């Protein structure tokens, strides 16, 4: 993988560009994809954002989201666009299997593939150009850097600012996590000076749900949460029946994994949701417990040191048993 700076001289020549990201794109994934699109369009490129799957309602306000294609919803049309692409940008993921059913198609494409990502252990061999930096708060911060370091700071407008800010607050827990560097605050100061209305972005991301979602959270915290004080660990396991009863949609479970972190002394929080195709795990830790390694070792996953995800094909009961065994094996690290 050649350094991302090597594409800067090529940016002035208009191309057919596709931007893609991980399945079920969150604020950082969708925000970085759309910010990059708005930037490249200003340079004269022809740009399509393709998401591997559908996405949460709380990113539907983002400027440009209406034109984003859903690969699962319209595979032939999305594949026709992919076949014509000269450049493929891959944002906020670093290994093709994070795009689910789009994986094989992406592997087959012979166009130039460019990575911009901040997760651990990138599959660098799959990309021609790119940047992978785990010290970055978010892929949105990296897109901001790309625009500025390529000499195009003047192209950052209100719509790019909103998209970038959304990803930054999404991935830093609104400036809480250790990835919130001085550079992140400088970036926000710059966006503010360019007219960003930050309060509106918070509202659209975090205060934009229906009543059922709050009642679901109440139910889950009361009935589906288990605290293992001997391992400083909390587990939430959500059966499919709960999702159906409360009419839970994509994105409604975002943020749920953070609630148990408010309990004194908790080092690891694990959330597992019984989805149709798999049991999907989310892990969050505080301090020295490495979620990325834990997710890789036990649940076919990965991510960051303090936030990672994984999956299992087992039943909910079986994967929960596997988790209980895993925290026993990690008990020293969890003290
Ligand atoms: P979340 O729990 O919010 O879904 O994910 C936490 C972090 O781990 C995010 O940065 C996400 O991109 C990453 N992640 C989630 N699931 C997986 C997975 O199955 N594999 C890998 N490598 N990363 C994941
Ligand atoms: Mn991210």
Walk me through the structure:
This protein is an alpha/beta fold and 335 residues long. The chain has helices at 27-42, 75-84, 103-108, 139-149, 158-172, 182-193, 198-206, 211-223, 240-245, 291-299, 316-329; strands at residues 2-3, 16-21, 46-51, 69-70, 87-91, 112-117, 129-132, 225-228, 233-238, 268-274, 279-285, 302-303, 307-312. It has a 7-stranded parallel sheet with strand order 1-7-6-5-2-3-4, sandwiched between helices. Strand 12 and strand 13 form a beta hairpin. Helix 1 (27-42) runs antiparallel to helix 5, helix 4 packs antiparallel against helix 5 (158-172) and helix 5 packs across helix 7. It is globular and about 60 Å long. The N and C termini lie far apart (40 Å). The model has no long low-confidence stretch (mean pLDDT 97). The structure holds guanosine-5'-monophosphate and manganese (II) ion. Manganese (II) ion is lined by residues 28, 92, 118, 138-139, 171.
Q: What is the gist of this entry?
A:
The protein has 335 residues and is an alpha/beta fold. Strands 1-7-6-5-2-3-4 form a seven-stranded parallel β-sheet, sandwiched between helices.
Question: Topology, pairings included?
Answer:
Blueprint: E1 2-3, E2 16-21, H1 27-42, E3 46-51, E4 69-70, H2 75-84, E5 87-91, H3 103-108, E6 112-117, E7 129-132, H4 139-149, H5 158-172, H6 182-193, H7 198-206, H8 211-223, E8 225-228, E9 233-238, H9 240-245, E10 268-274, E11 279-285, H10 291-299, E12 302-303, E13 307-312, H11 316-329
Parallel strand pairs: 1-7, 2-3, 2-5, 3-4, 5-6, 6-7, 9-10
Antiparallel strand pairs: 8-9, 10-11, 11-13, 12-13
Manganese (II) ion binds next to loops.
């Amino acid at each position: 993988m050649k350094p991302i700076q090597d594409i800067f001289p090529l940016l002035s020549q208009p191309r057919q560009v596709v931007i893609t990201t991980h399945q079920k794109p969150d604020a950082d994934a969708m925000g970085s994809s759309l910010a990059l699109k708005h930037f490249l369009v200003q340079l004269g490129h022809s740009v399509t954002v393709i998401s591997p799957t559908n996405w949460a309602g709380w990113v539907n306000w983002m400027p440009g989201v209406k034109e984003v294609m859903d690969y699962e919803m319209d595979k032939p049309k999305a594949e026709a666009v992919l076949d014509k692409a000269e450049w493929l940008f891959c944002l906020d993921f670093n290994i093709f299997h994070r795009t689910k059913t789009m994986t094989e198609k992406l592997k087959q494409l012979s166009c130039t593939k460019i990575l911009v990502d901040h997760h651990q252990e990138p599959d660098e061999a799959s990309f021609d150009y790119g940047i992978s930096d785990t010290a970055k708060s978010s892929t949105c911060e990296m897109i901001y850097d790309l625009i500025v370091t390529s000499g195009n700071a003047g192209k950052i407008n209100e719509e790019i600012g909103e998209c970038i800010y959304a990803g930054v607050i999404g991935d830093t827990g609104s400036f809480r996590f250790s990835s919130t560097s001085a550079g992140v605050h400088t970036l926000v100061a710059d966006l503010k000076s360019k007219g960003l209305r930050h309060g509106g972005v918070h509202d659209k991301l975090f205060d934009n749900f229906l009543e059922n979602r709050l009642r679901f959270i109440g139910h889950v915290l009361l009935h589906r949460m288990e605290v293992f004080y001997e391992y400083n660990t909390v587990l939430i396991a959500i059966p499919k029946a709960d999702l159906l009863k409360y009419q839970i949609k994509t994105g409604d479970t975002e943020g749920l994994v953070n609630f148990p972190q408010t309990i004194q002394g908790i080092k690891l929080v694990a959330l597992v949701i019984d989805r149709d195709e798999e049991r999907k795990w989310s892990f969050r830790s505080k301090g020295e417990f490495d979620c990325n390694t834990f997710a890789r070792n036990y649940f076919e996953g990965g991510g960051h040191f303090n936030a990672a995800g994984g999956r299992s094909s087992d039943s909910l009961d079986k994967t929960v048993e596997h988790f209980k065994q895993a925290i026993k094996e990690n008990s020293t690290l969890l003290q």
